[in-house]
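Quick one:
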Amino acid sequence: MIAMPSSFLPAAIISSLVASLLTMLVLFYAQHLNVHARTTRCWALAYAFLVLRGACSLLALTPAPLFALGADISLLAYVCFLWAGTRIFYAVTVYVMPVMLGFSLAVMWLLMTYVTGAALFWRTLPVYFLAGCLLIAAAMTFWRMKSGKHSLGYIVLGALIFLKGVHLLDFPLLRDYPEFASLGFGIGAFLDLAIGMLFMVAALLRQQEDAYRTNENLLQEIQERQQIERMSKERNALFEKVFQLVPDVLTICREKDGCYLDVNRHWETVTGYSRDETLGRISLEMNLWADPSKRPEMLAILARDGEVNNYETIYRHKQGHEYHVLISGTRFDAGSEPYIAYAMQDVTALRRVEKLQVQVERELQEREKLLATVFQLVPDLLTITRMATGQYIEVNRNWEPMSGYTREYAIGRTSNEMNLWAKPEQRDELIARIKRDGEVRDMHVSFRRKNGVVTQCRISGSKFEAGNEEYLLLSSRNIDSEIAADATRLQVESLLRENEHKYSTLFQLSPIPLGLVDVKADRIVEVNDVWLKEFGYTRDEVVGQLTSALGFDAQVEKRKEFDQALLRGKKVDQMEVHLKSKDGTSLIFLLSARLIKMRNKRMCIFSLLNVTRQVEIEHEIREMTAQLEERVKLRTLSLQQANAELASAMASLRHTQDELVRAEKMAALGSLVAGVAHELNTPIGNSVTVASTLQDKTKDLMADLREGRLRRSTLDTYVDTASKGTELLMRTLGMARELIRSFKQVAVDQSSSHRRNFDLQTVLEELIVTMAPMYKNSPYTLLADLAPGIDMDSYPGPLGQIVTNFMTNALTHGFEHRTNGEMRLSTHLQDDGSVQIIFSDDGIGMNEHVKKRVFDPFFTTKLGQGGSGLGMNIVYNLVTGVLGGEIQLHSKLDEGTTFIMTLPLVAPQLANEKNARGTGKDTGFEAGFPS
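Output:
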């Protein structure tokens, strides 16, 4: 700005006051002329407060500093009304409460700073900054929402408001300089006048646009009204056609007296009265209401709601019979008189159908109740399933005793879900037969109960349709008892058959040779057809003959034994005898006999069971058994050879596993070496730089010394440089030495399984230092909470390997697809002489499947991506084997993973460690792995 004399300040303020006053008057006049009234009113009020600000500023030049406070408050009011008018101008929502809140806070700030005597700069800076920002926001409104027709004018207006806002931003900086303040008031007066005039022009242009739009809308409204009148005539004609063609009865009545003014052609069909008989009369005159008290009730509903819907009553026909009707009506005004339009529907037939339907539904409910009772009381298991899905819809009370499942559990599930079919192919056969024949009868199936017991059932059923869907009704009966009864019955029948053949005429139907002998006469009384067929005789050749004549006495010892046994016990069972048939064929029989009384005679009924073929089969079985024993010996030799090959393969597999474990350990140590080497580059590189710098400085000093140009200042500079350089060199080399010392200790521990006494905190801190390169340049962090003073007599190498595997697993698997993560390592001394080491991360966690197999060898979620699957298996073996502790895993998806190790302070002695001590040899790190 150009500095001006301070005497011009009152003149500048007066000019700003006059410009604001003129602009205010013009805007109030425009508001009076209703030129965009709301907007011009806000802008006029804004300039009114601007006039007040000018007056307060002029009075503030006198020894009255309170007027300066009024000027600042007036400025805030000016900015708020200008911003609100701009938002109203473009029909944008004006948030009054935030503006009032901001205005109140600014006024409170001014009052507080005025009372406390704060510096003028700090008192006015927030106020003018807020006012400037609001004006810039108003300018942005004009720029964003400029009209396409007058865009240049709106851009100029927005630019002037923007300059006004910038002018307010720098006003606090120049307020204490009268020579600049006078120029500022002059510029402000020019901007205020220009903005006010452009506000007036903008309001007029907007008024013109609104008038143009109003004319267009009016013209459009006139055209629409003409179209509506044309459509009204068409609709009146259409209404008359619809009024007559609607299938329901339509009537129009006057509200005040209820007289019918018009009815459609269906009126006479329903009521029996013609149109001429109806018009001008009311329903009571025509005796239409069977119950006249219903009419006031309907009119009360109509008066209360303005309409009535489906009011049911009974009308009386002109001929005297009654019928049910549904009445719907609505009240409407036409001209200055209210009317009522009724629609009436004869529902007599519908009510008859509904009554019949209610009766049918009642009968159906009774039948359903009866069927449900029968359904539950049927002794068999009844089920209803949906054909499409196989889901159970209903089962009767026999379901739970037979299946073991409750009814509530079964409904909605399928037989496959409950694993009911012991043989699933039977279900497929059942469905196929149902689809083919529509039913199935007495199909034998096997069901599995809930407790796993398989039962045998006989199932019958058929499909049926209900509600456009097919269902299957099945009846199942447990036939375990029937099968057992059949088996028992067959056995009993086999035993009873001999007795039945003794005393019945079915003797000949016996499937085995039977004969009846008179004991006293020793003659054959009867034989059955099977006996004759077995021996080749005819009945005449046998009946009446002595037993000796048929060769029964050829075995004398057997005959004596038979006679003695029969007389002593009155029975003979399964006595082996050798007899010959008629053609001389030798046959082997099992002879059974019983003594009975028949016609007061002692009779012997005997049976002969031909076991000739069985004896031959037994002989063949003995020969086959000898051959099988020989084959078993050969097969045993083959199995022994296969077992030897399998043992060799297992040994090879163990060797391969040991090699993989060793490779896993060396890979982890190699990764550790690479990280430490990377960390050593920085201190060693810094040391080389410092040493080379000292070398160059020494050469320059020696050159100056040789040439005799050595000065004290040069020597002092060299000494200072050498001192700082050696200090830096010692610090960086010390860092490298500490890193190498930690790495050496960790490397020694991890490359061997030496047992030693160590401080747990020291070992873990050294391990953390060497592992730092693994995560240093990543978004992941490691937090350590190590308890001091925990002394252990154990194996630091395996312990370091475990923590390394934990961290590798977290970085590789736990933080996969994570942009950040946190690992925690903590130790806690337990009361039982053990220490608890906890490693956790907040990564993606594990599901149940991974948790169950995480410690299995060769299990990895990175199969084919570099994962060996041995990391967690090594951890488990080291914890439970070498260190003699136990490990727990807690993990959930998206909730991280926690490993909790509980280790004894004194590790157990290992067998291979004792051997190594006895022989004086080091078994190496692999000693920690159990075989």
